[in-house]
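Check this:
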Amino acid sequence: MKAPSRRRFTALRQPGWARACLACVIAAIVIGAWPDINSFSIRIVVATAVQFGFLAAVAVHLKRALPTRPAGQLSSDSSADEPPPGGLAQITPDQQTNPLT
């Protein structure tokens, strides 16, 4: 999956998200570049909060766009998800390879 960006949202015809990408960058730059040295640490925290808030919103948006599967179905190929015959408890420490011993 490609990283979400203004170009991606524009190509998907989602102009609101494209504008939000641009607004987040502009807001972080304006907040960080304000010429008052006494409030620099607070401004950096606020700019970071703006960026992480936008990142969380994009993550929720992309998560909702994913196709859902029925409960209990891990993938379309169920053979890869099954444990080996006899289960994992059948492996003893002396059967494992350890290059340090």
In short: The two ends are 41 Å apart (CA to CA). Residues 6-66 form one domain. Residues 40-65 form the longest helix (26 residues). The CA atoms of residues 19 and 88 lie 50 Å apart.
